[in-house]
């Protein structure tokens, strides 16, 4: 097939519609190119529950083996389970998933040995160039001996590793509703939660890459409505929702109210600082003011970064940070090879809740201190012009500071907002926070009026 790789090779991964934009023949070329670029003689490959995932991952493995690399196939897994395998086996890895995208999509998340990320600047552009060069003629047969293909089940070891990082053995009995969204959480949760004093109420645990119940994107409020209703109906202590590849988790309290990922970041940061006193904690620039405050209160050093997992992982490696959190519900741990794992964050929430008697809403009140808008997207014809209009409106106001670490951030002592462009769509993304709800609402509406003028 003719390959328009500009449409499928993104900043951090490969992602597109199957078979319209890519297919197994291209997947095989990606496997060959990956091995050449990372210089690997062995790799590990896993996949999610999408209908196209087994075929694509098998083709990728064939391409890698024909370049002489031995391939360990771990089969059905969550993305963080693939990172576990990459870290534990010290092998480069490939995860076939399109995360929360609709069923017709699929993709590849790539990493070097030890779960180190592969993005545009760290090998992905070179992989794309090789695949484009080979698209007509095929990959060269570069190895005298074809690599081996071996299967290995890593689920039990992955679960045991997570539970070695959080002591959940002594928690009080808890009732937890988990919405797996027909994604990989339905595969991993039963094993990870096995043996814990939990009454598990499963929702949509059947692996189904057509997502028959709702999109597997818990950051969209529409996709957690079922979970919220079930938590209330069951009288549960909390609810947890995972995205399609189960590397992100979203928490609902005992009232059925969504918990801000910034509050979860602050809670986990405090717990990780108890394990690693004086450590550095990474947070992106749209997390709440609560996060750096809690980090400092617990003796740590907060470091603010751009949005995006590649920036978080790079900064964690550079600074030796113990933990990192994003408002998108990605959570990164030094003890997990700096990779993101929503399951480990979920275990931290369970441990924090289960070692005291207060309900989750009361426990988290200490970590959720301000009024936030959440992320609001606006479709615009000219991202730069609308951003400049907002900058001009606030530039002369007293007490205002501005920075451009990622988009435009405007702040005073009482509020801040960040306006940043989408890299892939004609959108501007707005996040607003203030010391109280009326101030936040007024500021949000003022900025939106400028953006949408």
Structural write-up:
This protein is an alpha/beta fold and 453 residues long. It has 3 domains: 5-153, Alpha-D-Glucose-1,6-Bisphosphate, Chain A, domain 3 (3-Layer(aba) Sandwich), CATH 3.40.120.10; 155-278 and 338-369, 3-Layer(aba) Sandwich (Alpha-D-Glucose-1,6-Bisphosphate, Chain A, domain 3), CATH 3.40.120.10; 371-451, TATA-Binding Protein (2-Layer Sandwich). 36% of the residues lie in helices and 22% in strands. It has helices at residues 24-38, 53-66, 79-89, 124-134, 155-165, 185-193, 225-234, 261-275, 290-297, 309-319, 342-354, 360-365, 383-394, 437-451, and strands at 14-17, 42-47, 70-76, 93-96, 105-112, 116-117, 149-151, 174-179, 198-203, 238-242, 249-252, 280-284, 301-305, 323-325, 331-333, 371-372, 376-379, 401-403, 408-411, 415-421, 427-434. Strands 1, 2, 3, 4, 5, 6 and 7 form a 7-stranded mixed β-sheet that branches. Helix 8 (261-275) runs parallel beside helix 9. The two termini are 43 Å apart. Its cofactor is Mg(2+). It holds the Pfam family PGM_PMM_II. Keywords: Isomerase, Magnesium, Metal-binding, Phosphoprotein.
Topology:
Elements: E1 14-17, H1 24-38, E2 42-47, H2 53-66, E3 70-76, H3 79-89, E4 93-96, E5 105-112, E6 116-117, H4 124-134, E7 149-151, H5 155-165, E8 174-179, H6 185-193, E9 198-203, H7 225-234, E10 238-242, E11 249-252, H8 261-275, E12 280-284, H9 290-297, E13 301-305, H10 309-319, E14 323-325, E15 331-333, H11 342-354, H12 360-365, E16 371-372, E17 376-379, H13 383-394, E18 401-403, E19 408-411, E20 415-421, E21 427-434, H14 437-451
Parallel strand pairs: 2-3, 2-4, 3-7, 8-9, 8-10, 12-13, 12-14
Antiparallel strand pairs: 1-5, 4-5, 5-6, 10-11, 14-15, 16-21, 17-21, 18-19, 19-20, 20-21
